[in-house]
Every structure is written in structure tokens, then in C-alpha cells.
DNA sequence: CATCCTTTGAAGCCA
DNA sequence: TGGCTTCAAAGGATG
């Protein structure tokens, strides 16, 4: 890891995502509004004839003075340079925000091709509208690209969660699994399932190494990004969240969990998930009902291989699980008798 | 192009 | 405080 921070900041998120409701329609509406705003911005830029619209936006005339208006610019800038920057700012309202958001923007910024965007003649008008001639599709495309870049600059960089012990283990061992015979064609999910099992089988001392690594990473992360919260990254994939929420709501909600089933005193009987305060595996397998359980067996590593608790039998045998409620037992007996 | 799959652990949210 | 959800990684599959 040459620079630990680099691969943590990979994607960008919208600053105002938290203000949007969970409602998918609202999300769409929000996205549409953004599109409309972007289009309007493009049109405004395409039609720029002077600096009046820019000034009316109230954007500060950033380069009329060097400091303290732009303290990050530091020392002396030549008058010629100042003049250049000022004219660029006046030509593009977006340029100021770019400047304000990136210290080293001069290394990255490519000035917009403003000359090709301008009408061939300042007096040229559109015969249809009587207004100024719009830019060519090519220049509009260029504008779109610039606006996209600008938006990326303005967006808050997403600081990712530090990796936990298992994630570090996975990262370290994924390639090994891939290289093993026949695993090259395996899908990620399949590999992760294998790694999950290996993690469970890993001796405590070796797991401890990864936990220590994870702790170090967590401390480093906290040091680098004080005030960061995992919450900052929540609700980005609202669609996914909403879908899952609906699915969960449709599931059997009154099914017993290990805690209720066995009680706190018998925590050793709890399933892996309940021990970790996660969704009960037994509830999951029961919640789909007996019919479902035969159609769709538990996925490998999820509910099928419970190390802590013997899973409920899904065989047709009437031998009853000790954990099954009386009503469920009655029902199973009934079905069994009907089928035989 | 976005999301799913699949795993574990950490952290946030809600009642 | 318990229970639940989300997000970290990965990359092929899928809609």
C-alpha cells in the first residue's frame, strides 16, 4: 500500500442526497430536476454573450484582488496572470467554483473552448427565435463534459469505510483462491462463500492478525478523517435499500428468533447471526415456509452450514424439531399425514 | 448502467 | 439495549 488514502477515495457522492425522501418517485423527480438544471446551465453557458449574467449570479469577482479574497493562492501573481484568470472567470461562471474547490486546479484544469462556443458573429441571430444562435451539438457535448467534471469537483469525495478484519482477509486471499485449480472461472460470490468458510476455519491466532490489521486501519482512518462517520455513506443506494425493505416487510415478521427461542441463558444454542446481532438464520429458513425450503435450499455458507445450531430438518420426516412451535408441529403432522 | 450475489464485521438507526 | 440495516471488496451475471 503505497498511499493508504488513495484507494479509499474512489467515488463521489451527491452532497444533498440526505435531503431526498426514500420514495423512489421523489428520487426520480430529484434526478430529473438535476437534469433540467444541468440543461439550463448548458444553455446559459452556450448563450453567454458577456459577463452580465455571471455578475448577476452574485459570484464574487475572484481575481480582482489576489489575497485575502483567494488566500489559497498565496503569494504574488503577475498582473498579466491575474488578468488572464479574471477574463476566464468572466467567461465561465463554472470556472470560479472550479477554482474555489481545487487548490491545484491549475495542474488539472483544461480551459473550456470558449471561442468555438461563441457564435461566429456577435450579431448573429437565430431566424426561428430571433435570439442568439445556439452552439453546435459538438460544443454542447463539450460543455456537458465540462459540467460533469465540474460537478465531480464540487461533489464531496466519498470516504469509504475502513476494511474490517474479514474484508482484509478476503482481499489478501481472493487471488489465492482464484489461482487454485479450477477456481479461475468462479464468480466473486462463489469465491466469497469459499473465503467465508476458510475464515471460519482459520485459527484464532491467524484471525487475530487480521483483527489487528483492521484495528490499525480503523485508527489510521480516524486519524485521517476526523469527524467522518459511516453514516456519511448511508442512503446512497436508496433504490437498493427500498427494495430490500419491502422484501423484508413481506417476510414472516412474527417468526421466533433465537433469543426468544432459547433465551439469553442458552446463548450457545443461538445461531451465528443471532450471536452477532444479525438477522436470525433460523427465522430466515423457517420464514419462507416449508414449501419454499424444499424449493430453494439455503445458499452455501448463509443458512445451510450453521456451526452453532443444528438446522431445522427440511426432510419429509415427521420427526419434529425441538424448536418448533406446537402449532407448527401440528401443521407439519397434518401435512405429513395428508401426503402419506 | 445499476443492481445482485455472497461472505463477515463494524457501525448506524430505530423502537 | 436489542434487533435490524447498510456498507465495506470483488467481478461476472442479469435486468
TrEMBL record:
Residues 159-229 bind DNA. GO terms for molecular function: DNA-binding transcription factor activity, RNA polymerase II-specific; RNA polymerase II cis-regulatory region sequence-specific DNA binding; transcription corepressor binding. Residues 159-229 form the HMG box domain. GO terms for biological process: canonical Wnt signaling pathway; mesodermal cell fate determination; regulation of stem cell proliferation; salivary gland morphogenesis. It is found in: Nucleus. GO terms for cellular component: beta-catenin-TCF complex; chromatin. SMART domains: c-clamp, HMG. Residues 139-153 have a biased composition (Basic and acidic residues). Residues 116-156, 285-327 are annotated as: Disordered. Segment polarity protein. Functions together with arm to transduce the Wingless (Wg) signal in embryos and in developing adult tissues. Acts as a transcriptional activator, but in the absence of arm, it binds to gro and acts as a transcriptional repressor of wg-responsive genes. Binds to the beta-catenin homolog arm or to gro. Belongs to the TCF/LEF family. This is dTCF. It comes from Panagrolaimus davidi.
